[in-house]
Structures are given as C-alpha cells and as structure tokens.
Amino acid sequence: MVREETVFGPIFSRRLGSSLGINLLPRNGKICNFDCIYCECGWNRDGLADRRLPTAAEVRGALESKLRQVVADNIHVDSITFSGDGEPTLNPEFPRIIDDTLALRDLWLPDAKVSVLSNATRAHVPEIFEALRKVDNPIMKIDAPTDEAAGRINRPAPGYSLGRTVEALKRFDGDFVLQTMFLKSRDFDSSDPAQIAAWMDLVRLLRPRRIMVYTIARPTPEQNLVKFSEEQMRSLVQPLLDEGFDIEIRG
C-alpha cells in the first residue's frame, strides 16, 4: 500500500481538480475511525506500521516549502486538500493546522480553496466544528442513512452515531458539501429503494450547498464490490435534481 507524505502532489482529483494534498496522519501507516470496505488506503489493520502523527509545526514547514515550490514552478493549484491516510480531524492539532494553512494559502496561493475531506464523525466537537467552518470546502461524508447500514459500508469504531453526525451537520446551515459513495457489496446496496429514499430524506433535511456522488475508482480492500455508472447514479438522484439540488456525479 502506497502511503502519502505529509504534503503531496498536486494530483488530479475527480472532485477538486488540481489538488495539493495534506496528510495529517502517519506517513507510513493509517489511522481512521472508519474502516470502509472501499477505502483505497486498505484495511485499518494493514496500516499499523507507523502511528506517529505530524505536529502542527511540521505540517506548516512542509506546506510552506511545497507552496514556495509550486509558485516558483508556476504550477496551478485549485485546492489545498486535507485527505491522506485516514480521518484528518483525528490529529489533535487539527484546529491550529487549519489556521496555519489558511494563513499560508492567503500568502502564497490566494486563489486556491482549502478543502477538508472528512467522515464527519468529529464535527460535533466544538473546536473541530469551528475549524471546519473556516475552510472553503468542508466535505462531509454520509454513505448510509442508518447506523446499521453504516456498519456494513463504513465499519465505524464503537460509539458511532449517525444521529449525532446529522445534528452536527445541521449546524452548518447548509454551508457544506456532502459526499456519498455509491456501490454494491454482498450485504450493502446504495440503490436499494429503502436505502436511497432514506438517504434523500437526509439530504432534504441538511440541504447541503452541493452534493458529491461518486463510485469506486481504485482498488478496494473488500473484493467483488460493484461500481455504479454515472447514468445509474443520475437516475437514483434524479428526484433531488428535480428539486434543484446541486449534485456532482462522478463515475
């Protein structure tokens, strides 16, 4: 499994264009409170070799060095994106790192957006919520509309509560991006009528400014997962499109 440096790229992102990545997790490991069946970083059990998290000072130094380089080389960057090998908000210095990143962005790449790809499990924590509110694109995940279904696709750590996540996301007042993976496994199907209806009800409740619907694009730890076509996904979300929701569909 290829692991990411603390600052990496830019790489092309289906959702964000030219993306300069920031990995707040171990350079040679994985730390996440989800263990998603589709995660390109593999199972959590396979990422135990390194448990050291980068400090805020280390992230700032690596990011400033990379920003100097991309500016000198005239490399276009659409987004500075927190992703990496696991859940970025698990880094205990996440709020400080967000403040540092915004300051460096303003100095070096003022036209770039700052984005955070998160599973939203810690959005209820006050300091995490405040940090997420500062970035341009807080991209929050809900793949399944019930705890039971989330257990089959996301395999969350004990204590996960979809209800708690939804209550936290309501506090964004719609000013966030919702991302959802569509796939089919032996015991999970995004297109199940009850599943898709319940998910659409959550969308209507939260009213995110944009929705990113996507499917498998890279090797997955669970075998025999079925990806959806863009046409299938469009058909599934057509009621929301008809209601005026801004939905980006990526195959």
Short overview:
With 251 residues, the chain is an alpha/beta fold. It has helices at residues 56-72, 94-108, 126-134, 147-153, 162-170, 193-206, 230-242; strands at 7-13, 17-22, 79-82, 113-118, 137-141, 177-181, 183-184, 210-214, 226-227, 247-250. The chain has an eight-stranded mixed beta sheet. Strands 7-9 form a two-stranded antiparallel sheet.
Explain what the structure shows.
The protein has one domain (7-250): TIM Barrel (Alpha-Beta Barrel). The protein is an alpha/beta fold and 251 residues long. Helix content is 33%, strand content 18%. The strands form two sheets. It has an eight-stranded mixed sheet with strand order 1-2-3-4-5-6-8-10. Strands 7-9 form a two-stranded antiparallel ribbon. The two termini are 23 Å apart. The chain is built from seven helices and ten strands. The chain is globular.
